[in-house]
Amino acid sequence: MYFNAENINLFTSKKCKKVFLGIFFLSSLGSLPSCRLPLNETPPPPSEIVVGMGDSNDCISRVNPTIQSFFKGEAADVQIQASFDCVSDALDTFEKSVKGQYPDRYTGREIAHFIEQYYLEPGHAFSDELMLRFFKIKQVFAGGNQTSISRQELKVLRDLMKRVRDLAIDMNTYMPLYSMS
To answer: From the CA atom positions of the chain, what is the Rg in Å?
Structure first.
């Protein structure tokens, strides 16, 4: 004799329902102790964040010279692509490695700390004035306020950067002509 839904209806009898719920409840209780935080354990050592073009961590320092070369009509397409990729990678790394004070946005100080820690030479600081300028530009292109950047605004900026990168590469051929004026 084979069991099928017509021969046995386990979930229709009240007694079977209670037994099933009891087993489910007891099995879920067994997993609860494993959900608590471990005590007396040291946290794992922080992993080094590697960002940049190739093995280099200083790709951000090459962005400004590339922008200047672009406006002079002297930049190569590869330099433009690499600069935009560097900034995009930095945004990705920031979003993956920084847990902000708020679940949906990051403060200016969190951004500044990230840049100071991973991109600036020791002893250099990301000034509040520069941060305010950054947020004003962010506000023009992505909206929001002047004190934080949301995850959605980061996505908007990342998409905008891709479009600007493509336009800059397309315009690069003509930049020597534009820079003559």
So the answer is: 27
